[in-house]
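Please check this one:

***
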Amino acid sequence: MQIRTLLAGTFMLASLAGCATGQMDQTGGEIVDDTALYEGTLPCRNCAGIDIDVELDGTESGAAAERTFSLNASYREHPQNPPDETYSGQWSVLNGTPVDPEATVYELTPQGEGQIYYFLKLDADTLELIDPQRRRFQNRDMLQLQRQDASQ
């Protein structure tokens, strides 16, 4: 009887130790990777849309120096056929918007030339492009990027 209890206790401890090896986020979920990829198509006046993908490396709670990004944009059916744009740099976490002081905003600052991008974090899977004053645009649904599975 004592051996069964000892074996059951050992098995339970081993199981719990296995669960505790991964890094945990604030909601209790396990963080598998510190890279997030978001994709979407933004509206374009002169073309069929701008395909955009943003890869964020690092975490909100991690060191600022470890937060990097790459942003790629390609124009669909543009009459002047401009080249794809690629930017990389650092991203920061800003708190609050004029409407929601609890909101989380990501500020993407490219190295060298390029504009600074602001994305409102709607949830873990959705970012929305907003203006530099951290205000949402009227066509906000058309400005959203969705998180993609890293294995794609």
In short: The first strand starts at residue 35 and ends at 42.
